[in-house]
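Our preliminary data section would be incomplete without showing what the modeling component actually yields. Below, a chain of 81 amino acids is followed by its predicted structure, encoded as tokens that our downstream tools consume directly.
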Amino acid sequence: MVNPAMIFKMKSMWDEFTANHPKLPRFFQAAASRSLEEGTVIEMTIRRPDGETITSNVKLTASDMALLEQLKEMGTANMQP
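Predicted structure:
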């Protein structure tokens, strides 16, 4: 069972996060404006204050696309009344 107080707390934390980092939600919106497709490469880089950099990427496969579609359907189903 979902704890309403925890949802309220997470919403408050998310609002603060997006206020501190307004470009990130806009980036995700821009990325979501076009459907992902098999062969798309998603890359992430972490740059630490000391200069260390870690980069990784994934090239989406057909099975990845099936998983993403399932997650999308689950999220949509949970948002409906």
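Residues 21 and 39 are 29 Å apart (CA to CA). The longest strand covers residues 41-47. Preliminary results of this kind motivate Aim 1 of the renewal.
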